[in-house]
Amino acid sequence: MTTPVLTVLDEDKHAWFAGRTRAILQYLDAELGPRTPGVERMVLDLGIGAGNMAHHLAHYGTVIGIDNNLRPLMVAKQRGLAVGQTSGDQLPFADDQFDLMALLDTVEHIPDEFGVLEECRRVLKPGGKLIVTAPAFMWLWSYNDEINAHQRRYTAPELQQKLQICGLRVRRISYNNFFLFPLIAAIRLARPYNPELASPHLTADADVYQVEMEPIPEPMNTVLHGVGWLEGELLQRIALPFGTSVICIAEKPRPYRTTGSAIPSPPAGERLAAQ
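Structure (tokenized):
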């Protein structure tokens, strides 16, 4: 049975967040399936923010989260989540500890992208999975990227190559927001800068944290929920050729075995300059 999309937070009701969640759950269902009673899985949400995805990731195991921004972490703590403040490229965890890691619209914020991907490989258990979402195509760069402190946007081949360089095997990769891509691309190209967008980075009150999202009026928001549902069904079967975001699930390879003895996994390739 397909893992249900829980609608308990305001973000879940927004069509963009709901569509991304459906895509994530489709990929995780295909690779992991829901958590099994009596089998404990550990899940690390790297870049957990205010914990907007923790209740969905909890379908697959016990979730803990980290972020380097204290403001959203205070919201996550109020929600009762196990969280801590640290940098993503220096994780305070032992090797081979997590069954699942989530980098959900996070890696584009981190200057040292290879550092964080190599840390993901290190703390994942052999056979553990990494789910990644990130904005697509540098030519879609806009004011929204700037106010949210993005470092880059990705193509699917570029993200796949960088994961492989860091020793992770890509299992599935696709673009998403496929059906909305022509409309969003046209809006971005016609209006690349919009200083009226809200952002936690521009909020003066240190006690306030908000998720930046442009509201979608009804009935359009409901219509877009339906579009997101259709796209999620397609992602079960095919990789979509373009979209405004990239979604990927990768795996830490298990050690090779010959004649009963374990041989370490091949080392990650040398770091390459960002494409």
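The chain has one domain: 10-253. The chain is about 30% helix and 20% strand.
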